[in-house]
Specification:
Layout: E1 11-19, H1 26-34, E2 41-42, E3 65-66, E4 74-75, H2 84-89, H3 92-108, E5 118-124, H4 136-158, E6 164-167, H5 173-186, E7 192-199, H6 205-212, E8 236-244, H7 245-250, E9 257-266, H8 278-292, E10 301-303, H9 310-326, E11 334-337, H10 340-343, H11 350-364, E12 366-367, E13 386-388, E14 393-394, E15 403-409, E16 414-421, E17 439-445, H12 448-462, H13 469-478, E18 485-491, H14 494-505, E19 512-516, H15 528-536, H16 540-548, H17 559-562, E20 577-578, H18 597-609, H19 629-643, H20 649-652, H21 658-669, H22 673-678, H23 681-684, H24 694-709, H25 715-726
Parallel strand pairs: 5-6, 5-7, 10-11, 10-15, 11-13
Antiparallel strand pairs: 1-8, 1-9, 2-3, 4-20, 7-8, 9-16, 12-14, 15-16, 17-18, 18-19
Length: about 725
């Protein structure tokens, strides 16, 4: 089949975000791979105790091991405008996807506003969070939206308007997602693609099931290509950002590598379900090379999907070996490895791990080995072009760019293969002379603790690697969100940047500007002409001061003055708290501690959002805390009930802050703080009636309020039904 030009367009990887066992980011992930770290361990007790599910006789056969991400319950919902109430019910896979997506955007040097035209493609197999809920209603609410939310909620949170979908093809899920994303990019359905894989093990059911069918092993390591059954389950959350190569080059993006082509096929029904049909796999591999326009002779590395099931690993290896033999590739010239030797079978996240591992090997010009192979399976062909990589080795330069085949076979028979290629940046001497060599550096975070952590991370990173000072400035100016806690300074060299960051951490702010914007701060704009005038007068410090004060400055317009391009540097390090099913106890009204009408109204919204009033600012838009239309309706009902008034939803729904609502209550309804003091204690001791489980009451109320929003019933009718059901 001849491909049209659109389908031949290459795609560039411009950003990476990851959280894997013993790895909070791609750097730690790569360090684990490079140092041959075995990330398999005993199942943590905070997940489950395997002894609760097996007898003493069965224990020896039951899998007691896997690779697990720490602190799944830690999250910062307000960073994503999610309420603490919703955060508790949100699948931790989605929480982690939000975090790694933000990391990937930071890594690419963009902001979410600049990436509006983005598609989201997420590989996922199972959502098990609902299985650990003790209450059936809570479990049902979680399960109802869990999987499609993994993509759709990401699009909502980051305001992406491209395609948004979840892919489930077992272990090939995230490679299938990459294939779908590349097609979408080539068809101009989106300009950017956030492609991810999410895989967490929250329930013992799959461990028990895989033991029963004899697939899973019971050892503290994963052993692809080995003679024994070395299949172990693992976890991982990863995201890459893709873009058409021509677009990435035109936008001067920092490119990790290139995906030349992808093929996605099913093996059909010639073999038993779950087996590998070598004839079909050979045909798919040949198609992969045909589509890519390159020969197998230019491939130096194959990152396979080998997962420790010996028969399948041997079949995949020997099949690929035959294709390369037919192409007359020299004996032993192609290294073969599997990331699953470090992490176990990370299922839906495997493809992302494969791609990142390959890209990092290309970057550092090294082959890293598969580990834990005591004895290579005897049926693996030893005298062909392919050789299992068991030692670290230099990846030498050849006449073609460094290239790798990435291959995986999903448990259901879905095969995906990619050709990944090193990106060789042309060295172009810059003849343009920029008009300033004093650069403005900007770092911000939602709160002071996060700002300090972000500065520490930045300092550690740039102290170890030589970078162009103007590139650091450009990325911080144009590739980071502007949060309320802000730090700015002027520097000309990397050494000067390091000194000023260290001075800030040492609390020496003599040459540094910092401050925190109030939620009510006006959104002022500093015009380009005024900015240019300050630069030409040598007053770049004034730009730093203005940004600290909250002025918007279009830094992109100043490229001819400061120069620079996007580079990969650390992004935001955020403060987190614990969020888990039924983890936060409900806070009750305490009238004796309420000092104002503002505090009382904040208490109403705090109960609904599951927020402590001390965490709320009265001049902050409540949407920032995750308030939606349904919760707004509940708050209106509660105020109507408490104050014996009839506020029409249309009058109050658009009031953004606590201060706005209080002003409305005072001016339109004549409500005062004295009215609060007169409320009887039994009326205000609780916002909800504990005789009915909170989740059931919430679910029923949500249904009723949706009918109000649709115009089917009145607010008064909801109150009447509420009174009948729950009084």
């Amino acid at each position: 089949m001849k491909n049209n030009k659109r389908n031949e367009e290459l795609c560039a990887v411009i950003g990476i975000g990851m959280q894997f066992p013993y790895a909070k980011n791609k750097e730690e992930f790569w360090e684990n791979i490079k140092t041959r770290k075995n990330c398999i361990e005993a199942i943590p007790k905070d997940r489950w105790d395997y002894r609760d599910y097996v007898s003493n006789v069965e224990a020896a056969d039951y899998s007691q091991y896997g690779s697990f991400i720490k602190e799944l319950n830690m999250f910062n919902p307000l960073l994503f405008n999610v309420s603490p109430r919703d955060a508790e019910l949100m699948d931790p896979q989605l929480r982690k996807l939000m975090e790694v997506t933000l990391s990937a955007i930071d890594d690419a040097g963009y902001t979410k506003e600049k990436m509006n035209d983005t598609g989201v493609f997420i590989g996922n197999i199972h959502c098990e969070y609902s299985k650990i809920a003790s209450d059936p209603m809570t479990a049902g609410i979680i399960a109802m939206t869990a999987q499609y939310d993994l993509a759709n909620k990401l699009s909502n949170v980051f305001d992406f308007v491209g395609p948004s979908l979840v892919v489930n093809t077992a272990c090939s899920s995230s490679l299938t997602a990459i294939h779908a994303a590349m097609s979408s990019l080539r068809n101009d359905e989106c300009r950017y693609a956030v492609v991810g894989g999410a895989n967490l093990q929250l329930s013992p059911e799959r461990f028990i099931g895989l033991k029963e069918v004899g697939i899973i092993g019971n050892q503290e390591y994963s052993a692809p290509f080995g003679e024994e059954n070395g299949f172990v389950l693992g976890e991982g959350i990863g995201v890459i950002i893709l873009k058409k190569l021509t677009d990435a080059q035109n936008d001067h993006d920092n490119i990790y590598g290139v995906i030349r082509s992808s093929v996605c096929r099913h093996m059909g029904g010639k073999e038993a379900f779950g087996d590998i049909d070598e004839r079909v796999l050979k045909s798919i591999t040949k198609e992969t090379f045909s589509r890519s326009g390159i020969s197998p002779k230019s491939i130096q590395l194959i990152e396979t999907g080998a997962n420790g099931v010996s028969a399948l690993d041997v079949a995949e290896f020997n099949c690929l070996n035959e294709v390369f033999t037919e192409a007359k590739v020299p004996t032993g010239s192609v290294a073969v490895s599997s990331v699953k030797s470090n992490y176990g079978n990370i299922e839906a996240a495997s493809g992302i791990a494969q791609v990142v591992k390959v890209l990092m090997q290309m970057k550092e010009h090294v082959f890293v080995p598969s580990i834990n192979i005591k004895n290579i399976a005897p049926d693996i062909e030893r005298n062909g072009p392919l050789s299992v990589q068991t030692e670290k080795k230099e990846w030498s330069k050849s006449s073609t760019p460094r290239r790798a085949l990435i291959s995986t076979v999903g448990a259901g028979g879905n095969v995906v293969q990619l050709i990944c290629e090193e990106y060789i940046q042309e060295q172009v001497e810059e003849s343009f002379v920029y008009k300033s060599d004093r650069f403005v550096y900007l770092i911000s975070a939602p709160e002071k603790t996060s700002l300090n952590k972000t500065v520490e991370c930045m300092l550690e990173y740039i102290s170890d690697i030589p970078l162009d000072a103007k590139d650091i400035a450009y990325t911080l100016q144009n590739g980071r969100e502007s949060y309320r806690c802000r730090l700015a300074f002027i520097a000309s060299t990397q050494d000067e940047i390091i000194k000023k960051l260290q001075a800030y951490l040492d609390k020496d702010e003599t040459s540094i500007y910092s401050g925190t914007l109030k939620a009510s701060a006006k959104k002022n704009v500093l015009g380009t002409q005024e900015v240019v005038s300050l630069i030409e007068q040598g007053k770049v410090e004034e730009l730093a001061k203005k940004w600290i004060e909250g002025f918007f400055i279009d830094w992109e317009e100043l490229h001819s003055y400061f120069g620079g391009k996007r580079i990969h540097i650390p992004g935001l390090i955020t403060k987190k708290k614990k969020y888990w099913i039924e983890s936060n106890e409900k806070e009750l009204f305490e009238l004796s501690k309420v000092q104002s009408l503002e505090e009382f109204i904040a208490q109403i919204f705090g109960e609904l959002l599951k927020m402590n009033v001390k965490e709320m600012e009265f001049d902050e838009n409540l949407q920032r805390y995750g308030l939606d239309s349904l919760l707004s309706m509940r708050a209106i009902n509660k105020m109507n009930e408490l104050f014996n008034i009839e506020i029409q939803p249309s009058r109050i729904m658009n009031l953004g802050t606590i201060n706005d609502i209080v002003f409305f209550l005072k001016s339109e309804c004549n409500i005062t703080f004295q009215d609060i003091q007169k409320l009887s204690e039994d009326k205000t001791s609780e916002v909800e009636n504990d005789d009915v489980p909170l989740d059931i009451r919430d679910a029923i109320t949500d249904i009723l309020l949706k009918k109000v929003i649709n115009g089917d019933i009145s607010v008064e009718k909801v109150s009447e039904i509420d009174e009948l059901l729950f009084s």
